[in-house]
Amino acid sequence: MKDYVAFDLETTGLSPDSDQIIEIGAVKIRDGKISGKYNCIIHPEIEVSDFIINLTGISRDMLRKGIPLKEGVEEFLEFSGDLPVLGHNVMFDYKFMKMAAASFKYPFEKTGVDTLKVARKLLTGLENKKLETLCAHYHYVNQAAHRAYDDALATAVVFEQMKKEFPTEEEIFQPQQLQFKVKKERPATPKQKKYLENLMKYHAIGECLDIDQMTQREASKKIDHIILNYGVMKK
């Protein structure tokens, strides 16, 4: 695989169903060289824990100034085009991105390579196969671990180094179809609809929403967004 997009996401947690993307980072590689870069902070609709803030170094002020998820997804899809993807534990990021894309009616079907799986097969002597361990093995300094672009770049560097170290293992470096099926969205429950209506009335939010057409996830995200920005209803 000579041409690809290495990408990484920072998220509010581990579940694609309930957590959200807060940063997208990607680097485009053509014939082993960088030909493009993409990075953005996403404004989340749910509270971000202190653990994630401390882990990533993405401040709440940076998150407040972030772009909407739809804009970030659209820009990333345009950036990645029809190229295969590369990631360290790539299915984690692929699931989040595919679900985010699907929420805006965009397809995201990709072939790709997982550097974690490659390292497990080829670098058996290492104590673990974490990205930081692979970087140390190849004497590469990741300038900002747990930031999306820097981790994406580090993943590309590690991948290129593994290809050089194991030139006869061509098959393992070839992209395979990534398999993940997004569950069909269920309509918002009557309880969600009623609570959202009451919440909007309580805070005098004049936004025009077609609540009856919302999915459970959309309604839940909107409720979380209102509570985060306006607070709960007081009795």
From TrEMBL:
InterPro entries from the UniProt entry: DnaQ, Ribonucl_H, RNaseH-like_sf, RNaseH_sf
Pfam families membership: RNase_T
Enzyme kind, highest EC tier: transferase
GO MF annotations in UniProt: 3'-5' exonuclease activity; DNA binding; DNA-directed DNA polymerase activity
Location of the Exonuclease domain: 3-168
UniProt entry tagged with the keyword Hydrolase: yes
SUPFAM superfamilies: Ribonuclease H-like
Keywords recorded for this protein, A-Z: Exonuclease, Hydrolase, Nuclease, Nucleotidyltransferase, Transferase
One GO process term, biological-process aspect: DNA replication
Top-level lineage group: Bacteria
Catalytic activity, EC: 2.7.7.7
Record-given protein name: 3'-5' exonuclease
Annotated source species: Anaerostipes hadrus
Gene: polC_1
